[in-house]
């Protein structure tokens, strides 16, 4: 079935006048008449009834018009959306990121990107989750890209076989203690100083766990672990209520009246964060534009200035 024939049918149904419909469509009247005849033959029913020189929709035509109009409206809407997505100055960016990035880096990036007039019509759909959730969603194309740490496997698949990991920024690992803790009087401590206090560790399925374990191993520290927790905000709650101290990635919006973050003088390991993209996937120009901006911004404002998140 020819899509143009459906467009012709809709216009003729609206005007119910052959010459006027042909003029509106920019085609000859014989072409229009042929197209409608052809459509009626394919359907096996008359769509119009003739009354002298006038025509009107048949009972079948009235029913068919509802479906044709709805279908063509959806096609036109789809065309408009694709046109918008292919416009470098418009479109929707679907970005996933881990929770700690939502406190400072993501708002900073989006606000800086949208300062220019030509990027103000680009909108964002933002999603948060754990690294494993985000990478799984990226493989299923729920997002255009994600910002997260790196996992060797996603489900039962090697992440390298499906995803590209582009390093963009490093995140400092700090010691979190309650405000009334003995170590809270220091701005920086050595890792070995935590061994005397109850410790809150990341759970084994957390992406932070291997890094924290390596930091403790390098300092020859066996922590007095009381809790294992997967999510860093929950961990901060336990620290706040004096249930232990914890090594966590730097969090910008910590309540300084309840928890203090302390630098580690003898640790040079940081959490590496990546822009993750699915292999061989077409991305709209607006998404590529933001990705290029993101990489450049992080290089100029963090890497080149030796700043950690």
TrEMBL record:
InterPro entries: HTH-type_LysR_regulators, LysR_HTH_N, LysR_subst-bd, WH-like_DNA-bd_sf, WH_DNA-bd_sf
Entry's Gene Ontology molecular function annotations: DNA binding; DNA-binding transcription factor activity
Alphabetical list of Gene3D superfamilies matching this protein: 3.40.190.290, Winged helix-like DNA-binding domain superfamily/Winged helix DNA-binding domain
UniProt keyword Nucleotide-binding, yes or no: no
Organism name: Companilactobacillus versmoldensis DSM 14857 = KCTC 3814
Top-level taxon of origin: Bacteria
Pfam families reported for this sequence: HTH_1 (PF00126), LysR_substrate (PF03466)
PROSITE patterns: HTH_LYSR (PS50931)
Residue ranges occupied by any HTH lysR-type domain in the UniProt entry: 1-58
Keywords annotated in UniProt: DNA-binding, Transcription, Transcription regulation
Annotated Gene Ontology cellular component terms: cytosol
Protein's name according to its UniProt entry: Transcription regulator
Family matches, as CDD domains: PBP2_GltC_like
Family: Belongs to the LysR transcriptional regulatory family.
